[in-house]
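User: Please predict the structure of the protein below. I'd like the answer in structure-token form so I can feed it into my own downstream comparison script.

Assistant: Understood. Taking the following sequence of 196 residues as input:
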Amino acid sequence: MRKGYVIPFFVIILAIFVLFSFPKVQGQGHTIQIRLNINNTSNTVYIPGVGEVPSGSLGTVNYTSPPHYYLASYSGGYLTGLVAADGNSLGVSNTVTYHTLEIDQDAEEETFLVLSQGDWNNIEKEIVGVESDKFLKYPSPSFGFGLGDYYPLTVLLGYTDIDIEGSLDQSKGILRLTIENKGISGNRPVVEIRKS
């Protein structure tokens, strides 16, 4: 298995939106960083408490006390974002070819990956529902409108000091994952990721 290309997903968007929820994980005291790399530097990024910033001029910045825990990247009516009810920090960065959105949070929390039409206002309209744990109880929870036929999504994990085992294909919807420490091999921890 190639390092850095561990969990491919191909998400079919046939409904109003795609909602990918990273599940609640047992093990208090653990944190997780969810990072989304977007292959351009021409989008606009919205950071709560800061406002709109061109993705090509983000730099590398962490925000430890934002009013809400979400980041939105959009251009031409297409929105990509990360949304959580709570967190430890938000992070943004850019290179010459891509920009990155990141949420650092407790492992027990959920994070939504948003792929939709619109801009940051689509997330802002729903953030109170996310923060109050009511969002998924709505009749049709959504951050916006559908993008059309097929929208491939790949989640990549790339660690040089950890062997990650597992490869998953998932259609639209919520995916529950099990992340299990399988021991040590060649002086590196082995972690398996599979559907729960």
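That's the full token string. The chain has a mean pLDDT of 77.
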